[in-house]
Amino acid sequence: MTESYAPRDWSSQPPYLHPDYKSTVLRAPTRKLIPIRQSLSEVTGPVYGHDRLGALDADLTRNAVKGAEPIGERIVVTGRVLDEDGRPQPNMLIEIWQANAAGRYVHVVDQHPAPLDPNFLGGGRCVTDSEGRYKFYTIKPGAYPWGNHHNAWRPAHIHFSLFGPSLSTRLVTQMYFPGDPLLPFDPIYMGTPADCRELLISRFMLELTEPSFALGYEFDFVLRGRRQTPIE
Amino acid sequence: MSKLRQTPSQTVGPFFAYALTPEQYGYDFASIAGGVLAEGDVPGERIRIEGRVLDGKGDVVPDAMIEIWQADGQGRYAHPADPRGSNIAFKGFGRVGTGTDPESRFIFDTIKPGPVDGQQAPHINVIVFMRGLLLHAYTRIYFSDEAEANARDPVLASVPAERRRTLIAIRDEKSDGAIYRLDIHMQGPSETVFFDV
Q1: B53: nearest Cα among B129, B109, B125
Q2: Sign of the C-alpha dihedral computed for residues B181, B184, B187 and B190 taken in this order
Q3: B155 vs chain A: nearest CA distance in angstroms?
């Protein structure tokens, strides 16, 4: 029997239309989603393992160095990928991208007049180990202004992309930092249901902090669980 | 045992390209996937899939990211849950941004998937991401030259008849292979059917 996946918990997800985040207004689907009965098409998905990783892919403090170290505060971001039943998800690809310490993205479309860092790309990837653990070294990203409304600033965040074990477990999200004063003013973060917003905030952990090197932050991901109903 | 809450989704934002589609956009970082799915001598009919993403005003979206996941020419997925195995040379996953084509199209060079089971018509699974989408949206691409199989497909049957055309790419014969075209409309009278997968 092939397993299928538990439904998406809509109570933990942001709505498509969240008018405070202006780009949703013309881009959010307006019709009700049509439920699909899971078939082989939904319980399979792209599989990427260690063979696709470069040696420095998980170390953003080194993977784009052109002669000097990137500017900014070094951090360790680590945690586990679990499903909603608490089961670790091993061998899962995680991709990340972020702004540099000054709040500037390498992306050519980013016109924020903060400096680029020639030694920092801001992109990385890794694969979870047998216990579902991942670990990145990076630079703490800066906040940056954006055009959503007057004096709008995105809180510091790191973007994460995970496939999980199937197409239905796909997750793209953002991790924020504890105590960021910009969070209550950010319509993207605030678009999340109130009782689930804290799931997007990493925890500072002295135990994960590497002495004289990097502050440690912990962030876990929870993907949809499995269920034993057979697929069609 | 009480369940953990599923991590909320957040938008992919406008600046994903240097990490998720770096080679397509010219960044110095290896891509895990791109718009070319069929390389070498993978068996199957070579096809191109192309289309645009349009917002509620009908404006073309130049900062979307489209992922596709499909079976091989024999209808088999390259994934452990498919016990049949698949062509080793065909991974079945593609990912492109709409920001490099002059017409902001997504373009995939792939093979036409075979039927995956005894019920569903040949199809390609699609995930749409963009700034302004707090949660990605799932849709499918079916093929206009599979009318008989489409008529029996249980997923298409679950879609109101007048909206099915939003899922069916139109085949255009070219000397070097067929092109299938399908635009993705986020809103409006032709709003694409999105699924709760």
Answers
A1: B129
A2: positive
A3: 7
Q: How many domains does chain A have?
A: 1
Active-site residue identified among A80, A104, A125, A154:
A154
Q: What tens digit of pLDDT does each residue of B34-71 get?
A: 999 998 888 999 999 999 999 999 999 999 999 999 99
Task: Determine whether the interchain pair A188/B154 forms a contact, defined as Cβ–Cβ distance below 8 Å.
Answer: no
Do the domain assignments include residue A32?
A: no
pLDDT single digits (tens) A79-88: 999 999 999 9
Domain ranges of chain B: 17-185
- How many beta-carbon contacts under 8 Å exist across A and B? 252
If residue B149 lies in a helix (H) or strand (E), which one and from where to where?
Answer: helix B147-152
**B17-185: CATH superfamily:** Aromatic compound dioxygenase (2.60.130.10)
Nearest to residue B163, comparing CAs of A29, A195, A112, A108? A29
- Write out the residue range of the structural domain in which residue A196 sits: 4-26+39-227
User: Is B18 in CB contact (< 8 Å) with chain A?
Assistant: yes
User: Does A31 reside within a domain?
Assistant: no
Asked about A159 being catalytic, the answer comes back as yes
For residue B197, list chain A residues with Cβ-Cβ distance below 8 A: 8, 36, 38, 42, 167-168
